[in-house]
Amino acid sequence: MTGRRRIRSTFLPRHHRPVRATALAAGALAACASLVAGCGVVPGTAGGSGAGPIKVMTWAPSDTKATNKPGMPAFARAYARWINSRGGIHGRKLTVLTCNDHNDGVSAAKCARRAVKENVVAVVGSYSQYGDSFFPPLEGAGIPYIGGYGITNDEFTSPLSYPVNGGQPTLLAGLGKELAAACGNVTLVRPDTIAGDELPVLLNSGLTTGKHRPASDVRAADDATEYSAQSTKALGSSTSSAAAAGSKEGCVVPALGDRTSTFMDSFRRVREDYPSVRTAMAMGSVDQTEIDASGGASGPYEGSYITGWYPVESDARWDAMKKVINAEAFGDNRIDSADAGVQTTWIAYTVFERAVESLGGGEVSADSLRGALNGGLKISTGGLTPTLQWTTRDTWSSADDLAVVGFPRMVNAHVTFQVVRRGQLVAARKGFTDVTRTLQNADVN
Known about the structure:
By secondary structure, the protein is of the alpha/beta class. Helix content is 33%, strand content 15%.
């Protein structure tokens, strides 16, 4: 591992970075026990054993001042209604508990403790920035975490985690690989934080793989209300050294999390003198909803390069998910088929359903699910991801490839390349690109 480092953090602005909860109130086990506390439940009875309903949990933040993903638990409840209307999974009804983690480490731990108390067999399709708070209770109870959003490093290191995508690391590394062929000078605008310090490493791993010079690095406050100065500096960096950049247009990569839209508002106002400069970003910083809200084809995202985990929302492979939404959640404005959180939840429940089915008529428990997933079960997601397969380290040597950079649980390092054309996200190229080797180029010097 000489010359390389383990990517250590969550790639979030400072005010979003998780902190481990050092103390929990005595009432933690009762958190999220009612709808008033922010939790809901698809009616059912307890447990995963016997012939009763199978109980799982899905959590995500809602009604906070930071990132909100209400569509994930809302879709999980819709999925339960849909699967139960079809007779359940292998003849057993599905009960979905939901919890609001409030973008808070203590609340995330409370949700996990409730999952333990309720004897759920898995946490499925969830979003939380506080892996160091929620994983310890889950690990203590042996409860698998299937298909988290990929926003924390813990999701790629915990032995009980079964991620369905490659998280933020693959998106940024893949973006650099794409921009190496498409752009002249590349400028990264990122938070001036410890977490932000990791972003150039990932982007440059892709750029240098493509024989491109490293990106210029523009640091910015992660809580600013406007970014005119950073926009001007980034535009200048992206158009300088024309001889080195050749005839290719420059590209600016804002990687400011929830503040990316704020940056783009400022960028729109100062880019008039630089019409050839394009923008690029990772999915999660922008989606079709944000593109529409910012003006569509006349907005600042037009022409932007985007890396994602999955095919574009218009792809026919999402039709099965859309049928569930239309049948059980039509009119629920929390659920957007273009939202990566909703898409991840669909894939996570697909994995969960296949794992339960693999058990036949046997007991469905946290232990039996882990055994199935760790035993080499191959799961197709209908082409939305490559075939997913988790095994123990001693039987799957390829895990060592990603363990080098600290991702031993990552089994899907594939990304898709998209572009905004006429206000719509469309595929820039067919199929997936594997960025495993690109991540291994994340050198430190």
